Amino acid sequence: MKIRWEVVLVVVSVLLTLIFLLSLFLGRNLLVGNKNIATKNEANVALSQNIYSKCDKFNEKDKRFACYKEVSLYAIENGKSILGLMELTNSSKSPHLLEHSIGRAILITANYDLKKVRVKCASSCSPAYYHGIAEEWAVYAPKRLNEFKDFLLTYCSLDNPKTEWCHHNIGHFYLAVNKSLDKSLALCDALDADNNFLECSYGVIHEQLIQFGITNLFNMCSKYDGRVKSACYTISSRLFPQWLSDTIKMDDPLKICNDSYGQIPEKLNHCYRSIAWVIGQKNVSPNLEWCQSVRDEYRNLCVSGLKNPESFWDIFGCSIGGEDEGVNTCSQ
Question: Which DSSP string corresponds to 120-131?
Answer without folding.
Answer: HHTTSS-HHHHH
